[in-house]
Amino acid sequence: MYGHIFFRIRVDGKENIMGIKGPIIITPNHKTYIDHFFIGAAIPFYSNLLPIRSMAADWLFEIDRLPGIWWKRWFLLKPFGFIARWSLIALGAYPVQKGKGLGVSLRSPLKILEKGLSILIYPEGGINFKKGVREARVGAAFLARESGAQVIPVAIRGAEFFTLKSFLFGKRTIFLSIGKPFFVDPSKDLKIMAEEIRLEIEKLYNNIKMPK
């Protein structure tokens, strides 16, 4: 809903997800802090892919417990932390513990996939504010290999150099391209699988025709 309110969303490739069922790993490139809203706006409300669970750093669920001066903790961290935690829960986000190995860090999304549901993971691992698609980490490839889930590559373009001003006062057009689902070859090295996923996203990204 929010994606359509503040942006014009243009989507290509919806036919690639018609009738598809989980488990599914949706792998978009990452351009802004609100990319998950763009993905939500691109997928029809009747799709079998919904609801989609997305990753969030574990500390985002614990903001109100962070150390600090008592008045900041009570008047800033606690209210904001409460809102942030329950907003993430409402969006279906799950905490990911970084730096503890793939088996531990990605335990939650793997359990979700084992239930035949859909998850969203950004292969780049973080926001890439520049144009293009940067090197992929192995998280998405690991989940695809361990779960046997199909991967749906998605490219987001038009959100580069996103600012608060453009969000509030400039209803810009965001272009999304949804690729065909595919399975990874589990016999391959994780880095090779990660690069294959990245190349599928990059192909979609480069084929998006931007207005001049």
From TrEMBL:
Protein name stated in the entry: Phospholipid/glycerol acyltransferase domain-containing protein
MF-aspect GO terms: 1-acylglycerol-3-phosphate O-acyltransferase activity
Keywords: Acyltransferase, Transferase
Transferase among keywords: yes
GO biological process: phosphatidic acid biosynthetic process
Keyword hit for Acyltransferase: yes
Domain Phospholipid/glycerol acyltransferase: residue ranges: 24-159
Pfam families assigned to the protein according to its UniProt record, in alphabetical order: Acyltransferase
Database matches in PANTHER family: 1-ACYL-SN-GLYCEROL-3-PHOSPHATE ACYLTRANSFERASE
